[in-house]
Each structure stands twice: as C-alpha cells, then as structure tokens.
Amino acid sequence: MSRVLIVGGGASGMLAAVFAARKGHSVQVFEKNEKLGKKVYITGKGRCNITNECDMDTLFANVVGNPKFLYSAFYGFNNYDMMDFLEELGLKLKTERGGRVFPVSDKASDVIFTLQREMQRLGVKVYLHTKVEDILAEQDRCVGIKLANRQTIKGDAVLIATGGLSYPATGSTGDGYRFAQKLGHHVSQLEPGLVPFVAKEAWVKELQGISLKNIQVTILYGKKPVYTEFGEMLFTHFGVSGPVILRASSLVKDAMKKGELILSIDLKAALQKEQLEARLLREFEANQNKQIKNVMDTLLPRKMVSVVLNYMGISEEKKVHAITKAERGVIIDSLKNFRLTLTGYRGFSEAIITQGGVNVSEILPSSMESRIVKGVYFIGEVLDLDALTGGFNLQIAWSTAYAAANSL
C-alpha cells in the first residue's frame, strides 16, 4: 500500500482520491479552502456541467490545447465512464442541448457530495484550511510535501491538482505552476480562457444585461472571418459575453494578438435578407403613422431599439411612412450585420479556465507522471490542456485524474 498525497480538493483531486483509495492506497487530500470542490460549485452556473454525451471524435474536436496528449487518458476513462461512475454512486443525470450532462437536481453541490461520500466510505483523509507550501524531492524522486505551517508529510506519490488561475476567489492562485517550475518543469504562457471580450464602442454600456438567442456571430480580422457560431450571447457593461462569445475567446487568440477584431452579429439569423425585407414591409404597412422606434421593438428587445437606430443613423422619432427605401436597406443590413470592435479580453477573475500550464511534453500521457521527478503527477487544469464549453474541461479533469490514480 502506497501513501498517496493529493494537493487540491477540486474536481480532479476528488476523483483521483476515490480511484487511488479503491486500489487500496492510503490517500490524504490537502485543500487550502474551507471546503472541497469550491470551483465545482460555480461551474455551469451552479448546476455543474459534468461532461458531454458525445462520441470520441467530438470529444477530441472540442479540445483546443494539446488534444493528442489526451488520447490515452480519454480512452482510459471517457465521458460515458464518468456518467456510469456517478450513476452507480446514486447521482441521477440528464442530458441537455448540445450533449451537456447535468445532475437531475441541477445542483453542483450534489456532484461534490457524491464524491465526498465515496471518499469517506473509502477512508480518504481530508485536511481543509491546509496550504501546501512545497513538494519535497530527493534525487529526482518525490518524497512528500511541506505544509505552510512547516510540517512535512512523507508520501510515495504526490498528485498536484491545484487548478489554474481562473476564478482566483476559489483558491486557484497558481500554486501548481510554482511547484512545477521548482521541480524543473516548464510552464507555458498563462492566459484567461473562455472569457468575455471588451468592446471599444461606448454605447455597449447601454445594452448591458440584454441576452440574445438564436443569433449568429462572426468574428473578423480585417475582412477575414476567423470564427462563426450560432447560439446565445450577452451584452455587458464592458463588451460581450455568453456561450458563443466564450467559445470564440479560446479560438481567436492568435488573431486577437495581431490587433482589434470585428464582431458581426446577425440579429435575425433565422431569416434570409429577402424574408426580413418582406417582414419589414408588412410591419411598415400596418403601422405607417407610428414612430420607427415603436415598430422596431417587434424585431428587437425594447432596450436595444434606440441604440440600434442610432447606430443606423435613423432618428427614432421618425414616422414609418417617412422611412426611405435607402433607410429600409440600412435597417435590413444592420439587423443582419450589427458590428462591434473587440479590443481584448477580461481577466482571470472572469475566465472559466486557464489556457497554458505545465508543459505536457514533460508528462507521461498514460499516467500523468512527471518525466523529471518520479512520483509526482499533474492532473486537471494545472496542465497545458483546455477545451471549449459544454462539459469538456471537466472531462479533462476526470480523465487525467483517473489516469494518474489508475497508474499508481
């Protein structure tokens, strides 16, 4: 029986603890927060998007950073394995649009409770409010850890499951990167991932809180489209957020480094231009003596009308019968191609994940063990692995945790 020390009690740390204990190891988890799974509580807006019910090709296609490294981990413990594991422990699951898997209760706390209960049953020792200061190694082999109170704890294996830099309020403050570098590992550039964009236009503040559904966004660098997606988005006081925007943030990084990008929003994606023109003509004929602002709210959320009309250069007080054919063309073009300038990203405090991390070429993909220091394993977000929204990042956490625990 080996003594296994796990640094971090988040998603990957908890799952690794369960599978290491099931193999008969003595497992201790060290968590600096007051509870386990603090970041899991807020994933999926508090509902916890556990994984994605999709095939293997889709799983890999949604990994942005180093998908080939995950080949062994994903095939060793995939999304269906994770769903079966939780359901065997009594947690009922459901699948929503886009294959996203949630607990039936819609409570992230139930996922954490299920893992905690199994850890308790297996005799895993958990130390809360306990900060690990250092990983101890002798002659390129891990021998234990040192706590912030200077106490040392011997161990045969140390699993580093400290997360990244995103949502630092949950305790993700980059400890794992410091441990990795001290042990001789390289850490690639760390950037916020799945994060809202900042817009240049001052009028975006007036749209704060407006959520748009069934829209199509296209992001352009100059005239070249670098991303397009159909779905939902949200305006904020600084720019744009929401599902299609967060996904974009992980896919247009290279273009963003070259300069500002243009966000084009098709506000009426379900209608072709001809269909939209026909609808507009019907509205105009039925409401000829109304002001244009009172007709546009049949096409747009009321809070958007004055901003969009101002963007079009059309007075909101203008009567419908006075709108010229040219202005009608401007309305149609603007509804199909409403534009904003994207100047950059928000910070780690609003990022769902961290892009970058411990260089995966220095990690054994079958076991997550360090190639540099034996007995040290890196799992979850601390690694240079990241994926799009939809449960894929948590699946990386589960699969890498299982790979490490199963190889001990």
List the keywords.
408 residues; elongated; five-stranded parallel beta sheet; 13 helices; alpha+beta; six-stranded antiparallel beta barrel; 25% strand; 31% helix; single chain
Overall description:
31% of the residues lie in helices and 25% in strands. With 408 residues, it is of the alpha+beta class. The strands form six sheets. Strands 13-16-15-14-17-18 form a six-stranded antiparallel β-barrel. A hairpin with a 2-residue loop joins β14 and β15. α1 runs parallel beside α5, α1 runs parallel beside α13 and α9 packs across α12. The termini are close together. The model has no long low-confidence stretch (mean pLDDT 96).
Overall number of strands: 21
Please tally the helical runs, counting DSSP H or I stretches of 4 or more residues: 13
Low-confidence residue ranges = none
Main beta sheet strand tally, sense and closure: 6 strands, antiparallel, barrel
**Widest β-sheet, arrangement of strands:** 13-16-15-14-17-18
Strand content: 15-25%
Mean pLDDT: 96
Global morphology: elongated
Going by helix content, strand content and strand pairing, the class is: alpha+beta
- What level of helicity do the residues show? 25-40%
Rg (CA only): 25 Å
- Oligomeric description of these chains: single chain
